[in-house]
Batch of 3 targets.
Target 1
Amino acid sequence: MSSIPAPVLELRDLTVQFASREGPLVAVAGVTLPVRPGECVGIVGESGAGKSQLLLAPFRLTASEAQVSGIAQLAGEDLLALDERALDRVRGAQVGFVFQDPMSSLTPHRTIGDQIIEVLEHHGRARGQAARERALALLHKVRIDEPVRRLGQYPHELSGGQRQRVLIAIAVACDPALLIADEPTTALDVTVQAEVLTLLAALRAERSLAIVLVSHDFGVVSRLADRIVVMYAGRVVEEGPAPAVIAAPRHPYTAALLDCIARMDDSPDAPLPPIPGQPPEPRALPAGCAFHPRCSRAQARCRSESPVLASDGQRAAACHFPLSI
Amino acid sequence: MAGSILASVGTELPRHRAALAAAVLLAVLCLIALAAPALTPHAPGTIDLAQAGSPPGLGAAHWWGTDRLGRDVFARTMQGLRVSLLIGFVAAFVSVAIGVAWGALAGYAGGRLDASMMRIVDILYALPFVFFVIILATLFERGDVLVLLAAIASVGWLTTARIVRGQTLALRQREFIEAARALGMPTAQILWRHILPNVAGPVIAYATLTVPQMILYESFLSFLGLGVQEPLASLGSLISEGARDMETASWLLLAPAGCLTALTLSLNVLGDGLRDVLDPRTRS
């Protein structure tokens, strides 16, 4: 019997809170998420569901000071116990990040080559001429055209898709075991989106890179993810293998999200059904299931009793009345 | 970082005609000022009463004439130019160095540190400059070039600090700073390699404009008699002296005033050109 490999990233019962004048704001409430080597996990949910906070907070990358509790381990190392300096050695080396906006994620006054080399030198991977060659190889790897010329160019001379390729090159420059991509394609054209996703899939296959893909777009996630985690109001409401979740969602929220996607076989005139209402305010979560005010299947029990994430080993859903079982 | 800035100035500046002309004029002025002792047989301090007040002339022993004490105006003006250049560049360098460090730290740290650092700047701004210099000049030896430098630089850095702080504050919110943090860059490196290169353009341009400002401060102080003292001369003290005799011996005023005008003009045009050259987005 082959043993399951130890997870690269292990988040257990992770809670992220922000202090504010009106009291603590809970962005993530007790989420457990193991990411295994080479695996691609897609995290889906609306804006404000806590997807980004879940992955940025353990690395102390949130905009304001967050209180993180629970367990967060990267390759067995306790992230929450690390000081800022130790964390600097982790970020960029053992874990790479790709963010939403490629237009503004590169320093405007320095060349592309300079910025790739900086990361390599900072983490002691290569210096001088060797670093330059590595940078060039990385640009080749992310399939940018004319890589030699790009090294000497400034960010504003590149298109959005090219810049996102550069940022991916920087993120994987130090051969991390994990790549966290937070809405990596949201700011890009649809055709460029597809190219970037293809690139991520290729990098993953090539170096058994684990990828956590955070997106509000099921279409993007379904192209890359093995496993899908659906979040709502700071909690996981459903998770399971990507094809199974997409084919037969169990949580009404997942089903509603999937219904929002236009399909080729839909009639072009048929309106897409939106999810009624708004995501709840984190400080004023409804009693019982947080989704019940927007759920078409809600019953009395949903209004009083909070559902737990019930797992059958393969799939899990937090719903009193799950679909398709 | 410094290398890439110099390289871009080297390749881009020649395309900017006015700035190139200004740079050449500045270089010529500096060269003449430095080479002056070899160009004229007269020392700036030598008094020759027999030759006192002789007008300038091409064939004359003194090209730019002499002053009331018979000292050579060319030698005196060039010495004044040297002193003014020294004070201008050193004061500008010191004030930019302090201003950049102060402003970048305040802007990046934010919060209380930022507030208290900028209040200090506000208070210093509120102090009357001349009053401040008079106090320094009475506390220390009058006309000491070092005291003069300290006085000028102590006021000059305030504007740079405000500019850099404002720019840093805006830059700190940008995604590339977050991206740099996500790559494991420590604060010092983020400041040095991600904030400073982005403020370098405006700062270098402003620094170039600071040099003539410092020279004018010094001239102003020397004009009031608080600046460099005899027998040493600066452009300001020479203009002050020349202004007294401007109806009978106009060359005593015209020589230093012309040098000062040429110097400030060239620095201003150069600063303007550098601002264009140092922004990669304005390059073709």
Note: The CA atoms of residues 59 and 171 of chain B lie 61 Å apart.
Target 2
Amino acid sequence: MENWEKLSKKPWAEVRQMQDRKLRAFIVNQIYPYSPHYRRIFQELKLDPYKFKGVQDLVHLPFTYKEDIAPTDAEPAKHRDFIIRPDEEVSEKYGHMAKLSPYGGKQVVDEKIYDYKPAHIHFTTGRTAKPTPFVYTLRDLETIREAGRRLLDVFALSEKDILVNAFPYAPHLAFWQAFFAADSMGVASLHSGGGKVMGTQNLMSAVEMMKATVISFIPGYAYYFLRQAAEQKRDYSSVQKVLFGGERVPPGLKDKIIALLQEMGAKNPQVLATYACTESRLAWGECPSHDSYGYHTYPDTEIIEMIDPATGEHVAEGEEGEIVYTALDWRGSCLLRYRTGDVAKGGILYTPCPNCGRTVPRITANLQRKSEFKEFDLTKVKGTLVNLNNFFPLMMGHPQVVEWQVEVCKRNNDPFDLDEINLYIAPAAGVNIEELKSDLRQKVIRDTEVAPNQIIFLPAEQVLARVGMETELKEKRIVDNRPQK
Amino acid sequence: MENFAKLCRMTPEQIKQFQAQQMQDFFAGEVAVRHPFYRDSWRETGVPRSAADLQKQPFTVKSDLLSQPDNLESYRRYVLEVPEQSVSSKGGGLFGLFKGKSAGEIVPKKYATNQLLFSAGRTGKITPYVYSVADIENLGDTGLRMMEILGITRDDTIVNAMSYAPNLSFWQVYYGGLKLGSTVLQSGGGRILGTEKILTAMENMEASTLFTTPGYAEFLLQTAVHFNLKFPNLNKLIVGYGPVPLAQVKRLEVLLRMVGSPDGQVKRVYFLNEAKSAWAECSPGSGYHFYQDHAFLELDAVPGVEGRGELILTNLNALGSCVVRFRTGDLAESITYEPCPVCQRSLPRVLGEIERLDDYKNLGGEQGRTVNLSSLFSVLAAEPNLLLWQAVLHGEPAQLRIDAAFLDKNQAAELSGSLQAKLQAALGVTLTIKPTSYKELADRLGFEKYPIEQRIVAHSSTGS
């Protein structure tokens, strides 16, 4: 990997040249010879890998979609075709000879094992397809460690910070990226595994015990956790930064979190978000500021394209587009032109960050997930498209909503009847329920263009039980309870 | 840490000399200088210089390590202080000319805190335990030693199904696997990934090695047998972080055969959070091999407990949290410095089944007697017709009931009778047996809910 301090100061034109050079080498030396899937693609399309000049030639390759990788009952090992692996037949035939070679044969074997042998595995969460494994080699673990160090550098953390990692434990990226980041920078940490593992009370005490300066959370759990801590009048004066990952961060939620931290004695706390997907195998973060200047990417480990989701054509700098990810110089599971399904409203920016001055490409922070546009039969005219993303900023940021859940179901539980949308709301103390109901109804219509059928007010504990706080890996904010036709 | 091969060749006399030297160096060079509690206490009594001196020291107990409610940072009394930076990091003085700007930083990184692990134990009170950078490096080294003793190599594919918690069992396997360079799935155990996904992963990865707790191992393999899943590659099942009597090792070996692993071996590991390393057996019953450069163990007699003593731990190279003469609450038969008769390594070993002192309970009130509930594990593991069990202490004075799920439900009444007679003879108290469904017991034991199953409970939600 490049030197981060130098890389983040290089002019964009130079960075692009570096990407061209690295991509050429990566395709010729790793992807074409050792990736079964992409080798097949090159052969089917009669593409000559040696004529690949750089990033501009990526358009000759087809996109890779989640369904290309995710295991199915018919093909449970599809993901293996995306792993960079030197030909197994050759390894078996000549491997023992290499070991016996008096000219550093054992060292060569050790290097190959470092480069190519899977050592660590993450899984996708499996919400839209079966959980898909992504493997890291020992070399990749060095890459994710360095990415973690860069992430904390962007967040302006130092080895004097103390981290409580409250991401739920799972073989998923969020927990492990925080672990590798802290380990790499030398930040003293508690990798708690989240409330489900340690219990929220124990975790609250741990923040006080350690005088943590940084806490990393899934946004929904953060609000629940800090609300409880504030009710118990905990001393969180040491906390300076809250890092979010795993989900989008609605702007209103940041303000709620900051207010809670200030109530517990924190001075000028900041809430910072990360963006990642399992397929990208590392996370990017935004630099500290009240306004967001986007997620700072690492141009020596990936190429980010921004495309029109409908046509697949590139969009201009700063224009809304779907994020397409290409791995650069990784080993293990490597994807080219992967359609993330995430739409960046402000696209990608190549200008230096006005806040921190780093010159790396930035993905703008307002992200939406394409898969959360769902088709509903809300009227006799079937097939209304509803953007469920819009519930998150509305509910998370609403000052009078403490907890919430959206339920999609069928009228009379009849699979052939109309769809209904119900809101379950735990209101803040002392709120006028009728006024809140009317306010929510208006805002839901404004933001989603549909009217909720029912707004049901419940105590916070009941809504928390519905969303599975502390029992689920990710809380269930939007549930689709429609029976199958 | 010392060269492992060298440690494995020492004679018992050399081990004792080595440990005496290690104690002198570590106590005088680190503990007496940087340990807030022992530094103060040794000011009056002097720094212990030998095993004989050590025996005059008072014990440290678990409650000493807990944070006080009015001072949550009080756990730091048992954490070595990080040395002050006495030379400015900006300059570097004369050394700076030769070694660059970092020469001015004389604070050795090894003392800095890397991670806090917590032991919740059975008390439910979390005890923070600080691992310094050096401790984490040692965790990798001891992990590699553990793998070597267990016969695991880089070619093995490992599923780490130790329940995730910020404690030793998960992280020892993680760092050992990483150092070894094996392919490892860090599943987090049943309560994180769920049994179905773990079984699928084991099948897809063609896993050769599984690390988990003994109770969960049994549940996982029983589930595999039920669904007729086969794991022909699974040749090492490593269990620990819970009592594993030899009878249960045999039981797990039978289950391995049933899932298609004819040569599968079951081996045991002893995880002791405060030791900052796990100790493995090279073969079941050979004794837990520990490391003379890392820990010093004593065995202290406990009134009312025959043939066993409580293990007393002294850390010999810990730079974060550090304890001297710590009462572990774990019982063992003896400690030997003789070479292992199976693997020939001359590492010191803890012999006998590890049992918990907490499991010695008084049943039947004043006229009753103290019963070792740990012995239930070995007696019940030898019952081929028993699938699952839970011991329930109920009533006042406490009485014992065993809720049992039998292989053949139709024979439950008959099997209950014979089991009751057998247990009463073994424990010397009257007890009852309640046939219970497998599903209910699996739920109550909480294989997918708790870090370790609820084998002995004080009250039952199902009543008595």
Note: The longest helix of chain A spans residues 12-34.
Target 3
Amino acid sequence: MALAGITFLLGACSGGAEPASGNESASTPSKGGQEAVQDDESQKDVVKVAVGSADHTTLVAALKQAELVTALANAGPFTVFAPTNDAFGKVDKATLDALMTDEKKADLQNILQYHVTTSALKTEWLRDGQSLGMVNGDNLKISIKNGKIWLNDAAQIIATVPASNGIVHVIDGVLLPPAK
Amino acid sequence: MSHKLLTLLALFAAGTVALTGCKPKNAGNAVSGNAAEKAYVAPGEYDEYYNFVSGGFSGQMAVYGLPSGRLLRVIPVFSVDPEKGYGYSEETKAMLNTSHGFVPWDDLHHPEMSQTNGEIDGRWVFGNANNTPRVARIDLTTFRTAEIIELPNSGGNHSSPFATENTEYVVAGTRFSVPSVGSGGDVPINTYKQNFKGYISFISVGQEGEMDIAFQLECPGVNFDLARAGKDKSHGWFFFSCYNTEQANTLLEVNASQRDKDFIMAVNWKKAEEYIKQGLGKKVPAKYAHNKYDENSHTATSEIKNEVLILDTKELKDICYFIPCPKSPHGCDVDPTGNYIVGSGKLAAIIPVFSFDKLQQAIANKDFDGEYEGIPVVKYESALHGEVQKPGLGPLHTEFDANGNAYTSFFVSSEVVKWNVQSLQVLDRVPTYYSVGHLCVPGGNTRKPSGKYVIAYNKITKDRYLPTGPELTQSAQIYDISGDKMQLILDFPTIGEPHYAQAAPAELIRERSKKFYKIEENSHPQVAKGEAEAKVVREGNEVHVYMTSIRSHFSPDNIEGVKMGDVVYFHVTNLEQDWDVPHGFAVKGAQNAELLIMPGETQTLKWVPDRVGVFPMYCTDFCSALHQEMQGYIRVSPAGSNVPLTFSLGTNTGDPATGQ
């Protein structure tokens, strides 16, 4: 039920979710979504973790294009599998460019939502053969080989960063939802 | 809202007034065209002012935004609050300790904001407990009660907690005079005149806010009602309204209204300080509690103190002077210049305004009309600046604007009257709905009032809101006072009973508002600073659960091995370090309350199992999408059972294949 609710939320973002400029006072009401609330004291949420990473500029651009920033600044809890820029580099450039157009926004949302699940999953809670229900509605398969955690045998977790509203697992490949 | 609709509303309001016909004159413009616009704060916008409103018999203080009248928070102060676990968690119980033991309720009448140089500084707001006399200090970075001090030799702490212009002191004058310290206490009630005295406490306030009773003044046995500190030129003086100078101990309704004039008592507290330096105060035994909340250990401590310093104002001359003031004065208010003192006699037909300069002159000239109980009575005319003639019926309380005007509430005639302090001329009057008590102008008690709004706090709201059975909501009404004429712009309901209230510009407070408690600064003895520190420890028949909460689970969430006869303490640490992410904690059958734990904080719920079984526990604050998953079980076995004490998170699956 909660998962369905979040799926809806992630899919139903309103436009105009650009973060506010940084020089607003901490207590000035934000005119954007929760991501625009100026707060330099709290632990960073999953979006701010990604924004703060030089290795995730492509992911952040894609999250903005897919209008997922507001949803991911929500209370969570989220697990975000965050492909690095190098991971995106493995995707055919023409395909990636196409996904970044407004016409393909739904496809981009589908792919990015396949990188998010609603619970804060620590690596020690992931088990070989486990299936995770992702936000886009598809499942992701976890496997553990030689102590390494693999996702759909397509990417592995190379680093983990805790966030206020969940956890970010950095991965070395882009996950593609199963063909329908 | 369209202009047409507003016009219709205004017409409707006017029509209603015409039909009922018995409301005060001038009610026709009670709601005029642009009122809604003036009170409207658009969604997503902040209010201009914080309004701290007494909760009266709720014992709490409410925080509203102005001009919208939106309720932002109810701060538990003198009454338990199961919603926040206040007075129920092991850590907060000591806040409500008194010399009488744990007192779960009181009656809060007057918020008073701390001042620096006669201006609101936004650090603290004080509140008084009327029934079991106490003063509380609320920290405005956390909006929590940080400290409570009890007042010995006091009964009905009404003349309280008013502050001097640098918050050197907050005062607490007793409403009920009490058997004198020397009388032993067990005296016939009808020996009031011989045996009763009125005590006024001067509570010193340290740089960090810490309160201490610096001294008490022993004064004649009368009722002290309200008070104000002098300011600017009158800094160093304090003024207290006194009634029941008849010294009645029964049927005060009749017997305390006999004299034409009661008093305003002027107190030279700098003189009192001199006497103390000379060693002329007397330390006497007393018993009172002093409770403090520590933000790092997240725990309150209560200390019982045993002594108080008393100055006898009959023997130590030049501390107190009485100024005659007609008919049971309630309000006793000092204007922004510090020169004018306004007495509001509840039963008086005029409002006397006294002059500090003239008072000083009269004292210097010994222009006295004899003494009352050994205290000089200054001649009325000698201290009088003038009288406001026929201002209304039942004057109660006065606040001031920045332009030399005063606003006085009239309980009997249900109106606010604006008048000029210099000329004493009435400038405007507006009805209230109904039976107004106190007024509030933001900063209206200070050297720097705002000229924007006056808010009236009403006791009666018959026909103003949808009825809710025998008891109706009480209310606030906000008026725009920026023009020559006052304009009602909004009604809003209030919690409990609003007595006095104060308001401060939002920017003084909002920038300093705390977002969360730093977990590394948490010094609670049972803190678990991470899930690795979560544990369950048996100490005899006490079971201590060191529990953590984070989106979206508790650790541990399965506990077994508790037995009948055990007492369980859940010490729950909220590991979040994120603004506005409290977690709650509740366990079935708990006879106290929930815990509501702020990020970085540890709070403890005591739980005494009353039967064998498995009991659910869960997070009560919708913290996240998986809030409904944030739950656990605790198993209780019979006394003498051999179920071992175990605890876990995620591993107690009973699945033989995984060995867990």
Note: The beta strands of chain A are 78-83, 116-117, 131-133, 139-145, 148-151, 155-163, 166-171.
